[in-house]
Design goal:
129 residues; 2 domains; single chain; mainly alpha
């Protein structure tokens, strides 16, 4: 890992966790990224890596988030289809407030395209509450 000046930075690693514990901690990381709609690239951030190292020096943050298929498989690796639906609904509930905010913003605009988009968005909204 390098700091902002390009110098090699040594992190405090005493002894890494067992593979089972690493997997468990990675799953928590993936859940956080997924639930809070964070970009996978956040794990490439130097400050994020330093933060994780300060919290738990033995946790090895995944090296390359550009290869997201491994992490996405972790999210979707469930035999029950209902869980997949549950996650989708959970995300929709989180996004609903943002969608309502967008709808309100579009309705306040005066240009015809925004008003047209607002009307279309309002038609596909399941409910107002």
């Amino acid at each position: 890992m390098t700091d902002q000046l390009g110098k090699q930075q040594k992190l405090n690693v005493t002894e890494k966790h067992s593979e089972a514990q690493q997997d468990r901690l990675r799953q928590f990381l993936v859940n956080w990224v997924n639930d809070d709609l964070q970009p996978f690239s956040i794990v490439n951030s130097l400050t994020f890596r330093i933060f994780c190292n300060e919290l738990d020096p033995a946790f090895l943050v995944p090296e390359d988030a550009s290869k997201t298929s491994k992490y996405l498989n972790t999210i979707t690796d469930f035999s029950a289809r209902w869980y997949s639906s549950y996650l989708a609904w959970r995300h929709l509930i989180k996004l609903k407030g943002y969608i309502k905010g967008l709808l309100n913003h579009l309705e306040l605009e005066s240009d015809p395209d925004s008003l047209k988009d607002a009307k279309l968005l309002k038609n596909i909204m399941i409910s107002d509450d």
